[in-house]
Structures are given as C-alpha cells and as structure tokens.
Design a protein that fits this description.
This protein has nine helices and 16 strands. It is an alpha/beta fold and about 400 residues long. The protein has a six-stranded mixed beta sheet with strand order 1-2-6-3-7-15. Strands 10-11-9-12 form a four-stranded antiparallel beta sheet.
Length: about 400
C-alpha cells in the first residue's frame, strides 16, 4: 500500500483546507482561504476512491462545502463490535512564510519522508487509515462486525460543523473508536484529555491624542501589566494521575486604532487547558481576580468565556486499550493537554482513545513532516486492530 498511501497523502495535502475562526481574521482568511475549512475538497477525492473500491459511504454537511464522510466495511452483524477510526480533514494556518523551508501547500516526498502542511496532522494518518479501509474491504467476509472510517472537518477550530454535527444527528454508532491524531509513533495510547477553555480578556481605558498621552488611559499598557501578572498566576487544581498541571497561553492580542491615539481598548485571547478538578467558571473567576488586581487607575477589565470543552477520560483497561496493546505491545497509556475528536465521543459515552503514527515534533509548526514507514506500518496495524475488535461480541 506504500505508493497509494503516498499518493493519497500528497493529493489531499495539495487541497487547502485551512480552518480558522473568522473573528480572528476579520479582514481575510489565512493562506488565501475564502472561507474556513472547505473540507469538501478532500471528501470529493475520497468519495471518488471509495466508489472505485465499491465501499458504501455517506456525506453530511451542516455547512455547504464543509462535508463530512463516513464509510463502512464488514458484515455488520448484530451483537458484534463496531470500530470507528475518525480523522480530520482541516489543517491549521501555515503561519509566516519565512519560517518554511518549502511551500507549505506543495507537498512532496524526499528520502522516506513526506513534507507539507497536513502530512502529520492529520492527512497522512488519514491516508494510512484509508489504506486500512481498502485492506479490510478485501477481507470483508472475515469481519462479522463493522469498521467505520470517518473523514470529518472542523477539528482545529470546532464551531460545530464536524463531529458535533454527526453526533447531533445520531450518525455515529460504534462501540469503540480510535483517533489517529496524537503522533507518538504508535507507542502512546491517549486515554485522557484536559479540558480547554478559551477566554477573551478585554481591557478598557480612555482615548486621547498621542501628543498628550497623559490625558488618556492606555488599554494596551493595562493589558501589558495584566499579562505580566498572568505569568505568575497558578491556577488552583488537584493533581491528576495521568495529566500534568493546567497551562495558560496568550495566543492573540489586538488593540488601538492608530499610532497617534492612546488606545481605549485592547483584547487578548487565552487558551487554558485544565484538569477534571477544575471548572471553566472557576478559572474565569481566577483570571478576573488577576486582572482586577492590576490596579491601573482608569483601566477596567472584563473576562468572558468564549469556548469551553470539558476534560474526558477512558479507563486504562478499556477493551479498545487492550486491543491496541495486542497489535502495539510497546505502547503505554498517556494523557494529553491537546484536544482531539476523542473528547466529544467520550462525552457521548463512546470509548475513544488516541493512537497514531508520526513524531509530534512538527505538530502545528512550520516544515511539517512524517516518515512514510510510520504511515505504512500504521495502515497494517489498524487493519489488524479492526479484524480483532470487529470479530468480538459486544
């Protein structure tokens, strides 16, 4: 399957499916995107291949152009397990062109590696999982249960047009799920994820002419003081057996209207990954107290929850974990601060874990890469995993 995996990966990575929050890009989308995601371009490629293979599939779109795809092989007999492999078709923006050694959306193979935006996260693993589906189609008579392949959009931002849409419509029916989106070179099984709350912190001051800044109150200066204080903030939490301490990242900031005016407004966006012992409301209150303690005369702060995803966890001895250990005996159970499709599935009552090929070194970074050997090995292991899981009774 090597040549097919390489070909599929390069083809779908050439399609720009950059996801973004339009509020963060008010002027125009990153990487020349006319609208977020546009994941239907990848689905169209996969649909053509599935038709040629004779694999039944369905597509579902809450927003036109952002289609999600579900394909199924196996006999689907009652009483047997169904394994879902769920991958995402969107990618993060490429960022500064100067940070790349090559054009991010002109993927290529060199010396056993694939390079380009999405080859690791998550289009290379998607192509490998697609290859596993093709393998399993040839052995369908040996699968009493079902293997479901999902290529779904809107993972990087999460505005509800991807897996959430499928869950709301009752389109995801499975007993076990694998999310190939954590790297770890197949030596990690991610059973727990931190929660993620996105906070918008707004500073308000008073506008004035730059020739006499003392007449105003700079919201930018107030925000600078807050961010300095935020570095010292230690969020209250109870230690977790797998997950490490909560983290805070100030990822976006904007403020002011012109260089010759004192800025009356400034806003920063915080991405906070939190533990099961914490709540988003409690975190918001702690950040608000931190902001209020800045004590800059004439400046005020408001802190609002913009997005929230709860933490989740699957038992370390869950059937899907034990099944993965049978095909990857050197793997170990871990937790993660990142968010994947496992979270909404677990919160919906499905035992979903992360397990994937590739090294995490270039996740969300320039010069993204993955070894072809990792993808081919994963395709075979995923096929073996499906043959095992989908042959077992519920």
């Amino acid at each position: 399957m090597r040549d097919l995996i390489v070909d599929w990966t390069l083809r779908i990575c050439r399609e720009k499916t950059v996801d973004y929050d339009v509020a963060d890009y008010p002027a125009s989308g990153p990487d020349g995107m006319a609208s977020p995601g546009e994941e239907g371009k990848v689905v169209a490629i996969l649909a053509k291949e599935l038709s040629a293979m004779g694999v039944p599939f369905t597509t579902h779109a809450k927003v036109p152009g952002r289609e999600n795809l579900l394909a199924r092989v196996g006999q689907g007999r009652p009483g047997y397990r169904t394994l879902l492999a769920l991958l995402h078709t969107d990618v993060v923006p490429s960022g500064a062109p100067s940070a790349w050694r090559f054009a991010p959306f002109e993927p290529f193979e060199k010396e056993g590696k694939l390079y380009g935006r999405g080859v690791l996260d998550d289009k290379g693993p998607l192509a490998a999982s697609f290859a596993a589906l093709a393998i399993l189609k040839k052995h369908e008579d040996a699968i009493p249960g079902s293997f479901v392949f999902g290529a779904v959009g809107d993972e990087e931002v999460g505005v509800g047009v991807g897996v959430e849409h499928l869950l709301e419509r009752g389109l995801i029916q499975c007993t076990d799920a694998v999310i190939p989106d954590i790297a770890g070179e197949m030596r990690e099984i991610n059973v727990a994820e931190k929660g993620r709350v996105v906070l918008k912190v707004s500073a308000s001051g008073r506008q004035a002419h730059a020739m006499n800044p003392a007449k105003g109150v700079s919201a930018i200066h107030a925000m600078a003081r807050f961010l300095t204080a935020l570095e010292r903030l230690k969020l209250r939490h109870e230690p977790h057996r797998i997950l490490d301490a909560p983290t805070i990242n100030a990822g976006l900031i904007r403020g002011g209207i012109a260089p010759n005016a004192v800025a009356a407004d400034c806003e920063t966006t915080l991405d906070i990954r939190y533990l099961p012992s914490q709540t988003s409301a409690g975190i918001r209150e702690e950040v608000q107290r931190c902001a209020d303690a800045v004590g800059m005369p004439g400046a005020t702060f408001t802190v609002a929850i913009h997005q929230d995803a709860l933490p989740c966890e699957v038992p370390a001895d869950a059937p899907i974990v034990q099944a993965i250990l049978r095909v990857a005996p050197d793997a170990r159970v871990v937790g993660s601060g990142g968010g994947t499709f496992a979270k909404p599935l677990v919160l919906a009552g499905i035992q979903a874990v992360g397990w994937a090929p590739g090294n995490e070194a270039t996740y969300h970074e320039p010069n993204e890469e993955i070894e072809v050997a990792q993808l081919t090995l994963f395709a075979g292991r995923l096929a073996c995993l499906a043959l095992d899981v989908c042959s077992r009774p519920v």
